[in-house]
Amino acid sequence: MSDELGGAVIRLLKCLKCPLDSRMLGRQTVREIVYRVLQGEQGGALRALASRDVHFARIARVLRHIHSEYARPLGAEEMARRAGMSVAAFHHHFKFVTGGSPLQYLKRIRPDHARQLMAHDGYNAGTVARAVGYESPSQFSREFKRLFGVTPVEEAEQTRARLVAG
C-alpha cells in the first residue's frame, strides 16, 4: 500500500467517527481511495476489468492457459495467437494487465508452483525443476533463490521443519 493510499484510508476511518464528517467528506475520501488504487501497481488490471476491456478478457484467457500449462514451453507467438492478437499487441496488453512480460510472468509462477509441489508432494529440487518446465535444475535453483531468497533445498528443509513443529 502506498503512503498516499494509506493516508486516504486513515482519513476515511477518522471521518467515519463523526456523522457530519462522514456526510461531508466521506464520499470524496472514498473517491480518493478508488483513484489511488487505480493508479497503483494493479491499477491497469482493475481499470481494464472495470471497463470490460475486450483485451482484458483475451489476456485472462491466456493467463488461465498459462496456469494450466505452465510446465510446457510457452512462446509469445503461441500466447499471442491464443489471444487473437499480434505479438506486439499481445505484449503491450499483457504487460498492461499483469505488470510484466509473459516471460517474467512465467518466471514468477513456475517457482511458486514448484514450491507447492515440494511442500505438499515431497518433490526434490531436480524432480520439481523438470515438473514445472525447467530444462536445467541449476537454472531453476538460481531463479528460485532470486524469487524466494533461499535455495529449493533450504525451502524444503524449512517446510519440513514447520510441519514437524506444527
Total tally of structural domains = 3
Major beta sheet summary: none
* Proportion in helices: over 70%
| SS summary, helix count | 10
Q: Roughly what is the average pLDDT, rounded to an integer?
A: 88
Q: Globular, elongated, flat, extended or rod-shaped: what is the shape?
A: flat
The low-confidence runs, each spanning 5 or more residues with pLDDT under 50, are none
CATH architecture identity of the largest domain: Orthogonal Bundle
- In CATH, the topology of the largest domain is named Arc Repressor Mutant, subunit A
CATH class of the largest domain: Mainly Alpha
**DSSP E strands, number:** 0
Name the assembly state: single chain
Approximate strand percentage? under 5%
Compute the CA-based radius of gyration: 21 Å
Strand and helix layout:
Layout: H1 3-15, H2 19-39, H3 43-50, H4 54-68, H5 76-83, H6 87-98, H7 102-121, H8 125-131, H9 137-148, H10 152-165
Helix pairs in contact: 1-2, 4-5, 5-6, 7-8, 7-9
Architecture overview:
The structure is a single chain. This protein has helices at residues 3-15, 19-39, 43-50, 54-68, 76-83, 87-98, 102-121, 125-131, 137-148, 152-165. The chain is mainly α and 166 residues long. It folds into three domains: 3-40, no CATH class; 47-99; 105-165, Arc Repressor Mutant, subunit A. The mean pLDDT is 88.
